[in-house]
Amino acid sequence: MNRQAGGASRRRLHLSAACVTLLLGACAVGPDFHRPGAPPDQGYVPQGTSVPLSGTDKSTQRSLPGEELPAQWWQLFHSPTLQQAVEAALAGSPTLVVANATLAQAQEQVIVARAALLPHLNALAGAQHVSSSNQPLQLATNEYTLGLSASYALDIFGGARRGVEQQRALAELQRYQLAAAYLTLTGNVVNQALTIASTRLQISTTEELIASDRKNLALTQREFEVGTAAKSDVLTADSQLAADLTQLPSLRQQLSAAHDALAVLTGHTPALWQTHDFDVAEFAVPAQIPLSLPSELVRQRPDVLAAQAQLHAASAAIGVAEAQEFPSLTLSGSLTRSALVPGALFHDFDTLRDAAGSLSAPLYAGGALRAQTRAARDAFRAQDATYQSVVIEALGQVTDDLWALQHDADRLVVFQHSVDIAQQALQLQQQSYKVGKTNVLQLIDAQRTYAQARLGLATAQVQQLQDTAGLLVALGGAWWKDPSQQLPGDQPL
Length: 493
Known about the structure:
Layout: H1 2-26, E1 62-65, H2 80-92, H3 94-114, E2 120-130, E3 141-154, H4 159-225, H5 231-245, H6 247-265, E4 288-291, H7 294-297, H8 302-323, E5 328-339, E6 350-360, H9 368-434, H10 440-474
């Protein structure tokens, strides 16, 4: 009866010890990370302020608050050649290769960190020759061993689990860095394509102005020779020609640089890649722009998500540091065969068994362990402030782009009116010239004014396209929807 009671008592003791071990293994020191809440902002401008692109009559664009962006945002411009350029950049950009390789490296580090939670098993093999100077040589022996050893560090206070959590957060960081590289690359391709289109238009218009300047100078020179014009008129006409001529080299340099930049973005040298000569007429201005709300923006912009991942890693680092202040327990064991000849290891051998446990507890480290924990908490507070700063900057960037598009719409109204006036003035001068009421100089001047007005309007249209691209990039560009950016294990936001 006493023997049965003693056995039951021992079983209860073993069960209690197992429960304590499980409970200790379930806890992890350090704070549990919670994703920061969404900003309370309901919009991008203060209440009572007129909302940009709210659908006024003078605006050619209208924002759609709460609507989702398309998977490939540049398709809103409806340019097949632009689509080809972006696809070429995504296929050949070394920047994306670097970002993908860095992400793969970070994911491997997660596996390395996770291995600390598992037992380690090693194979053992050895040979030993034993002899003594006091014994005959015939009495020397050889000993051969073959076996296995295992060790397991109990993660009682969760330091290893916090380490895994930290590495996962760092892998997430690299995932969002890849998304940022993708978004930056596509935005740069669109901007360079628009720069090419804008510069080509400026060059062609400037050449028209130069042609008018040459006609003006030739006519003024003839009138001076016959005495109907002053020398100052000739100098003025010549000065205007020189001023317009000086613009061409810089414009051509700007065009060459844009072509070269676009080739580099596709992962080619300019000598091996022929870029397309984009034209402003190829691009359509999106009439409706999906506008993510602030609460959605912080869940889709790569820089905000990267800052959040860094905050998560900093939180886990606190647990890693705190766990070093507590004892650590390691269990180990081995099973070894021993024989005097190698062949006997498999039929005539001695079996050696070994089991051990070791406990290590920090007693004194000069205050270093506590200092590491405090430093980790300080780093977390700094990263939290950095995250808040990134969110505020993101909201500010979207607001700036919205106002830019609204001002672009206002500017287009003015420039269109200028073109209409210049066109009417030119038509009147042409009619007047046909009936002999005005001279050719007046007609040339009207043609010049009309060309300048058209250039101003086209430049404003390109600026609207560029600001639209800037807004779509600032909103996150829906990178998570693009099939080319999907990785195994990706989860929707």
